[in-house]
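Here is one chain, start to finish.
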Amino acid sequence: MQKTLILLSAAMVLGACAGRYGNDEPSYQYCVRLARQEGQVINYIDTTLQYRKRHYPGEQTEAELKKAHAERRDIHRERRDLGCI
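Its structure:
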């Protein structure tokens, strides 16, 4: 179920990128790369870090979770600033 949602959201993002950039291949590829990076960070947060938080709580896990959330926000902000979303 979770993988299906991730794949659907990735498909929507990629479709949006294609519509915005049209024939500008380098910009489109960069948009796709950012979307994939954000998807990987979201997947990492939802699986690995949430598991660690639940089963091995601690300061290191919380710090890594905060760092991953900040990285996702940065990627999302860059995508928004570039007009990908």
